[in-house]
Structure formats: C-alpha cells, structure tokens
Amino acid sequence: MKNHLAVVLRSLMVSLGLTLVGAAPAPPATAPVPIEDFTKTLVPANGLFTVWRKDGKVYIQIKKSQLDTDFIQTATPANGIGGYGVAAETPYVALARIMRFSRADNTIVISWPNTSFVADGEPSAQQAVSQSFAPSIVAVTPIVAEDAKTGDVVFDASPFLGDLIDMQNFLRFTLDTDKAPAAAYHLDPTRSYFGQSKAFPDNVILEADQTFESEAPQTETEVKIDNVPDPRSVQIRIRYNILQAPAEGSYMPRIADDRVGYFSNVLLNYGNDNVNERQLRYITRWNPARLPVVYYISDSVPPQYRDTIRAALLTWNQAFARIGIPNAVVVKDQPDDQNWDEDDVRYNVVHWLTQSNSGGYAEAEVVFDPRTGELLKSSIALDADLLQVGYLEGEDFAAPTRPEPHGFAAEEAAFAAGARATMNFGVWALGAMGQAPWGQAPPGYVQSFLYWVVLHESGHNWGLQHNFIGTSIYSAAELQNVAFTTRNGVASSVMGYLPVNLWPRGTRNGTYFQHVLGTYDYYAIHWGYAPVPNAQTPQQEVPTLRSWASHWSDPRYRFESDEDVDWADGHAIDPRVAQWSLSNDNLSWCGSQIQIGHAILDGLAQRYNVSGASHDAQRTGFEFAFSPFSACAHFASHYLGGEYLSRAHVGDPGASLPLEPVSRAESHRAFLMLDRELFAANAWQISPLLLRSMTYSEWSPWGGAPWQYDPSPRHDLAVAEIIKALQQSTLTYMFQPLLLERLDDMPMKYPAGSTMSLADLFQWTDEAVYGDLRNGAVGKAGAIHRSLQQWYARKLVSLAVAPAAGVPYDAQALARAELVRVQSDVAQSKKAKALDVITRAHLDLLAAIIHQALNANLTTTASSK
After folding, report:
1. Structural domain of residue 806, as residue ranges?
2. 865 belongs to a structural domain
3. Nearest-5° Cα angle at 77, 75 to 78
4. What are the distances in angstroms from CA 587 to CA 56, 429, 458, 475, 681?
5. Which of 299, 342, 466, 624 has the highest local Cβ count within 10 Å?
6. What distance in Å separates the CA atoms of residue 81 and residue 237, rounded to the nearest whole number?
C-alpha cells in the first residue's frame, strides 16, 4: 500500500469540509411524531441501531447516548462489474472514517469529524485543532419521530442513497472515460433505492442499490462495461457499514518504526511542540486482548480449495505461539445457520469471486479504527481466474517501465496478475523440461500456489506491509535444496512477490512455493504483537520497540516495501529490492530463468506440430517463454546507477551508512546481460516455424464482449514489436532524468572509478547499439536491431537538442558527443560496397537525422542541473 498516499487522500476527503457529491439536500424539518405512532405496525431490525423500513424508505433509530459519539463507517461494493476495477467485498472505494450523528433542532447532522489532527492532553492545543480543521458534513436529514422520555430519535436515512463515496469519479478513473466524456457514468437517483438493511450487535448495514448511467449510446461509447446487457446503465450495490467504535482506553496503540513493515495510521500531533516531527504513526494491528481472529470460509469457495485455505491461515499461529499467544487464528466453515451473516462485523470471511475481465484477483480486506489503527475486521477475496492454468496475454508480464499501480487494491491486483503469470510460467517450464505434461500442472502444484497466496494475503490481515527485499537472502544452492526450502521457504518473508522456485533441467529443485513463515515474518509479528513489560502508554513502549527493531542489518530481518520498487520514475535505487525475483544473486538467477525460457521456445514447435493440436497453445507458450526476458531486463537495468539502501538507525548492530555503492563491476555485469539478451543483433533467434505457427483460433465475429470475440489486429504474434517495445522501455528507464542525475552525482559520493559513471552509460549503450557500425557487421543486422538503432538515435537527439526537465548538462553534452561519433561511424559504414538496399537506406536515414540534430538550434533554457 502506498500508505502515505492513503493518508493524504483520507485527510483531504475528511478535512475539506465540503458536502460530497450526491448527498441529498435536507427537506424542511417538521415536528417529529412519537416513535410509537411512527413505528406502529412496523417490524424493527434491532442491533447497534434500530432500523425501520416504511414506504420504501429506511429510517434509523438511535439512542440519546449515541448522539455526538464516534462510529466507524465504511463503504464497499456488494457486487462487481466483471473485473473493471469494482469487485464485490473490496473496501477500497472509501476508507474507514469516523461518523457522528448530532442533533440540530429537529434534524440530524451526519458528519465526518476530522480525526487526522490531535492534541492529546493539551486543552489549548485541542481548542486550536478544533478551530483549524473543519469537519465534513455528509448531510442534514429530518428527525421524523422521537421518544420524549428517553430522547431516542428516528431519522430519515435517505442521504445514504447519494453518491457519498464518489463512485462517479472512481468509475471515471477506473474506466478512463476522459477520452470519451459522453461515456462517463454518473448517479441516476430516479433508479436508485434501498436494498437490504441489517442490524447486528456491533454494526448496521445499509445497502444502496444505485444506478450509474452513461449518456452515450452503446454504438458510440468508446469506453464501456462489456459484461452488462446495456452498458449505458449499471447497478452497483453500495454496502454502508456503520460500526461501534471501540471505547476509549480499550486499546493501546503501538507507535510505528520505519525498520519494520506495518501499515500505519498517520496523525499530526499538536499536543507537544518539542518534537522533531508532528507525525504520530500508529501501526494497524489487532488488539491482542481481542484475539483469536476467527475466519469463516464462505460457501462460495469451491470445496477442493477449502483445506488449503484453512491450513494457510492457521500457519500464522506458529508466529503467535512464539510470543505466548496460542491459537491466535481459528478457522471455521460457514455454518448452516440462518442467523449467521457474513456482514456481521464479528465475522472475518474468505470470499470467492468470479469475474470476466480481471485476469485473476486476490486482496486482503481490512477495517481499522482511524483514530488508533486498531484492526476490527479482516477478510480475503480470491478470484477464480487466479488459479486458471492457461491463456494470458503478454500484457500480464511487467514491462520495465510499466505504469505503477496506485492504492492498495491496485497493488494487490498487480500482485494477482503477476502471481498467476509466475504460476503458469512454472507449468509451461515443467512441461518443456519433461517434468509434467505440456500445459498441465503437476499434482498438488495449484494447491501449493494457493497456499502461498493465502499466506501473503492473510499477512496483510495482521497489518503487515509488503516486503520486497526478502527474496534476496538465500543462495542458489539453498533454493535448490528441497529440505532447506521446506524448512525455510524461498524468501525471508511471505509478504514479497515470490516467483515460482524453478531451475533448469539437470539442476536440483527446492519447493516451488513458500509454505512456511519466513524469518522476517516471525520477527515482524513479535515486534507488532509481543507485550512490552511495564509499559502503560504508547510512548513508554518506544525504547523497547526501537531495540527490537534494531536488527535491520541482519539479512533475515530486512524490510523494504512498495515505495522502494517505484522504478518507473527513478525513485527506487536498490537492485536487491524487487518483485518476482529470487536469490542473493538475481542476475545469475535471471540467467537460469532465461535458459528455461529458451527451453520452452525450443519445445513449442515440435510439441504442437501434431494432428489436432490448436495453435493457440503455441501462442500462449511463447508468452510464458518471453516472461523471463522481460523480467530480467527489468532487474538488470536497476543495477545501473543503483545504490544499496539501509533503513538501519545510527548505532544499530552492523549498521552501514544509508547509501552504499553498487560497484562498477556489478553494474557492468548487469549491462552485459542486457546487451547479450536484449540489445545484441543476434539476441533473438526464434524458429521461423514457430513464428508462422503462433496464431489464434477464429470464432464468430458477432460477439459483443472481449471474452466472446476480441482478436488482435494481426493474425500472427507480433514478436518483433514485442521485442522492440521491451528494448525501448528499458532504454527509456536507463535515460530518465532522475537516473541520469544520480549517475552524474556519483563522483561526489564515491571514489573515482568505483561506481558506474554517466560516461559509462553512454559508452556501454553506444557499443551495444552501434558496435556493428565499427566492426563491419551492420549488413547482418535484422529489422529488430535496425529499429533499435533508429530509436536510440532519436533518444540521443532529444537529450542533446530538447532535453526534458532535470536532464543534467553533462548528459546533454555526452548525448551530443555520441551523435558526433555515430555520425562518423555511419559515414564509414556507408563506404562498404556490399550493403543491401535496406541497410543503405537505414544508414542514410541515421545520417540525415543526426545531421539535422547537430545543426539544429539548441533549446538553451537555463536549468538547475
């Protein structure tokens, strides 16, 4: 989770003080009637509040003591739209927030008070906070009935039919309708009404069945939801859940530490000015006094998966047993009891989803108290496609500069797509190496994969963030030892994105997936849940917690999370921090995965050149064979301009400086892999027979949705274009401004020659791309390499003539120098007499582009670089 983004979003939504989109205006208030008169002949739903239904409307009865007190309100979709961003039971549309009900004359004011700013124990500061940060008013709604003796009131719940969670904009961003504004969705209040309402002891559910409509006719809608009969109108059931907030003093928050990965609830504290920062970060965790956490496996989960899910959930008991909390997790099947309801906040449920357009989905669901970070409910959603062995498109494999997902749900959607891809890669690899039938998972393989996915998601349910450095702990020899991986797993944490642990034919192999908690997982649970002796306040725990967290430098306990894999914009710097890689030498591991990729390619033509076999399988097999090439281009490029990052604090055992260098030799080793496997003219030797075989089965062209008929523009698989895109995206990453800045600054931090330099980047890339101009082999280059040369020439031109903001002057100078050098090399190459027509035309175009650039007017705006 981008936790800092979540906090900013929540703070903005809560503190703007605006009436949100769709909130119904308050009708004129009239004198309330007695409750007994209003509710005559009605049947109540009794619980946290009493809920009444009358004339198609919903009314809430609350006690006088419940006025001006804190409740926790969440909103989740109760249904999905087939994988287009909205899925059932996923609480990412609106964050949990405090809700209050206050009386103003004969109306109830429903508000979201501002809870992000506190001043504990300081009355004057508390007064300043209350004056500075306005609440958000959800709605003002009439009191329709009152008990004069008790002060209980009944009010109209119609404001919950408005678009309180701003689903309109969520659909806009999710469906990307800005490119077709007429296709944007907005709430139609005339087709919205209350669905189910439920009352339980600790929470109340109000379901709003809301219709969102698009004004564009189906034939003109560029962006639409394809799995509904008429995409101009879609009903989304929003389930509002109002929970009893924990009583003050019933839970002691725990203050976060940047060396241990818990989601944190960040407040600004104005109660003490004698601090370095005002941020007060409470971790999200369960109240140890409220354990065990009881999971229920929904009847929607296929029976064949229930035992695996149960075993994975119970695995966390091993970590809690070590800190004296036995049986912290209990798992039950959904009971055959009509009074049991998964909407009851007391139940934590594993759900099963079926979606047409998600490609596989898994997400942890948590509800926490936004005042303290206390977890109150957790569940897991799993999608059927996650376990499907078979067809995926190439877009499911991460490109080196793919757009980074935003928000926890998007991160977990990306996790599920990557998890499904690595699971399927293993299936095809095992087939290619003769260890399983082609395209079929061996016995127990899918269940083993599911076990790890549930371990990962349930780790989030305990409050744990991702940990993306845990895959760099073990050696190849350890990962190939089944006894070792059975005991220790394949990484130090289940909270990473762990690829299938698979090695080439003739090499020993450990377990494919992680079934045990790693060393970091035990460490993190101890840090978050073990009691601190004699501590009576969160601040009194801090010295002990700091001591417990001081072991970051030990590889077993290292933690790095989502912000540390933000490679696309150049923010991330540590090549050890990665998703979907393994071993303490991931460059060598990449070599083994590329070897497996070649094995798949080598077997595809022979395996499927048989009577009756569909050519779709060859196309799918290529996608999986290509995945390690794509992933390893991603990993290798991170060594260029990289630095090793440490979260250790001053004085921690074994602490280094926060930044240590990636050596020039290691950077060059990574670049040589890029050259050999990606840039070299002879890198892509693919069987012509295979290229002619990889097509798709034709079906009737009259289908209306992508899952009915959605052919690609070309009948063949555009392999050359896929490779070109990977080359270009890798170079785009290598020459982005932030990375160029870091390389330019390296001599200020490290001895000359010890790290890769900016000059190295240009010289190494020049040799990889244009070396054949100097060695006389330019005539042997194919279309892919010629395209690379043309694209890189234009990249150099943009750096030299019209650099982007932030490109250092040194990079501009080196780009111009490279253009001069290539110009000379092109001129020399053109003297060869045996050039074919296309090669000569290619050289002429390069010469023209470079000549024009070197004689162009430079963009000379002053830069801070």
Report:
1. 735-854
2. no
3. 115
4. 64, 19, 31, 12, 21
5. 624
6. 11
